[in-house]
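Duplicate of #3305? Posting structure anyway:
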């Protein structure tokens, strides 16, 4: 069965799934092999749960005409997504970058949704499986698709662009993330810039932040729509930015008061403003969309618990995002400030040095008490009355049993996803 025929069957289905726990009636199920399981073994269960068709790549699990045997289920999922994208012929905005991808994606979505029927990546389904699933969630009713692309090694963005074929692209920034896979910061720049390469070769448009010298340099030959702070050359000129703690921007005499914390979120907001403007969304609607957006999923959330004000930014961390979070937190006027910081993962040979840089940046500040958790921070421990090191989260938890935080404190919680520092909320 060729991809056109499989697509015809897909159009008969109400949804698509790769997880039998999430199967809906009249769906298509793709049996994709994982490192620890073979989803082909769930073919019968998928049909019993209501799937109309099951794509398998192991002939041992052929049941009847509802099971479709292919050479490789994952490759067919990717080919089907590419075919579906070409079938729909809708404009697609793609974005990648080291930090801020998901927040920026959500901001772009709420802004464009003021005027168009949009569909965007759900959560962080942004890899070689997530991007196809995102594309296959678009329907004939979708007017603009928004696709987040993640990568931890070179050629990944190139591959994802070949599937999604974006008409517009935006790179949030080039930071110290996934250094192990990219082989260093230069590798990050090269890998993320694969999006620019696709846009150039296909005569598409890039959204560019003129305040980012790397974006400006790498997008020189591409059609662009630009934004920048106090930059008369920008298509969208943002006159003013402040964060105390929420980000407020002023452009075209529109003051937009967001629910996002930290100056590092200003560029995310500015990008959404620029993209909304390019798509002719009214300024009042852009303002409404951004002011009504509230972050979730442990990303720059401002929470209150008892007498504590908590900035929960525990979804992920890398040296770049950790540094700006610390800088932003240090600028707050609050009297009692506490930082709870967890290890940064996927840094490879750079891990020791990058954790040491963070520790060194903290040792001379005297406004915050800092708790640093994880093996990498612990290996870089120093003697300092404001810095407390714990090899594991359990060690930190036991410490808190007998050492309560000062009331009326403002607390920053940040670390890589694997540290799961949101657990701290149950301890304070």
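Output from current build:
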């Amino acid at each position: 069965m060729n991809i056109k025929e499989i697509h015809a069957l897909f159009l008969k289905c109400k949804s698509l799934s790769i997880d039998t726990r999430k199967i809906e009636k009249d769906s298509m199920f793709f049996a994709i092999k994982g490192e620890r399981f073979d989803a082909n073994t769930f073919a019968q269960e998928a049909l019993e749960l209501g799937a109309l068709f099951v794509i398998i790549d192991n002939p041992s699990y052929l049941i009847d005409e509802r099971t479709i045997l292919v050479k490789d289920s994952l490759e067919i999922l990717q080919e089907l997504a590419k075919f579906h994208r070409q079938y729909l012929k809708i404009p697609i905005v793609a974005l990648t970058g080291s930090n801020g991808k998901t927040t920026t994606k959500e901001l772009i979505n709420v802004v464009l949704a003021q005027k168009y029927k949009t569909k965007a990546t759900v959560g962080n389904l942004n890899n070689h499986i997530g991007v196809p699933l995102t594309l296959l969630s678009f329907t004939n009713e979708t007017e603009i698709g928004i696709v987040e692309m993640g990568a931890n090694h070179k050629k990944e963005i190139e591959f994802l662009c070949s599937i999604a074929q974006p008409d517009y692209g935006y790179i949030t920034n080039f930071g110290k993330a996934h250094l192990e896979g990219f082989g260093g910061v230069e590798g990050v720049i090269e890998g993320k810039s694969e999006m620019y390469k696709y846009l150039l070769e296909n005569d598409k448009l890039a959204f560019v932040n003129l305040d980012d010298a790397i974006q400006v340099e790498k997008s020189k030959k591409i059609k662009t729509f630009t934004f920048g702070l106090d930059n008369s050359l920008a298509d969208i000129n943002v006159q003013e930015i402040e964060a105390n703690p929420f980000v407020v921007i002023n452009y075209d005499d529109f003051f937009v008061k967001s629910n996002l914390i930290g100056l590092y979120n200003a560029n995310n907001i500015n990008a959404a403003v620029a993209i909304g403007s390019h798509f002719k969304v009214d300024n009042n609607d852009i303002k409404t969309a951004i002011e009504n957006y509230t972050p979730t999923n442990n990303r720059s959330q401002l929470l209150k618990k008892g007498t504590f004000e908590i900035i929960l930014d525990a979804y992920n961390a890398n040296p770049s995002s950790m540094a700006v979070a610390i800088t932003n937190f240090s600028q707050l006027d609050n009297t009692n400030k506490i930082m709870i910081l967890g290890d940064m993962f996927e840094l490879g040979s750079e891990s020791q040095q990058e954790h040491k840089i963070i520790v060194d940046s903290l040792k001379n500040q005297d406004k915050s008490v800092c708790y640093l958790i994880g093996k990498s921070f612990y290996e870089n421990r120093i003697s300092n009355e404001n810095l407390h090191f714990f090899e594991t989260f359990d060690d930190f938890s036991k410490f808190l049993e007998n050492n309560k935080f000062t009331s009326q404190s403002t607390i920053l919680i940040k670390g890589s996803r694997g540290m799961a520092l949101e657990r701290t909320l149950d301890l304070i």
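Confirmed duplicate; merging threads. The first helix runs from residue 3 to 11. The chain has a mean pLDDT of 93.
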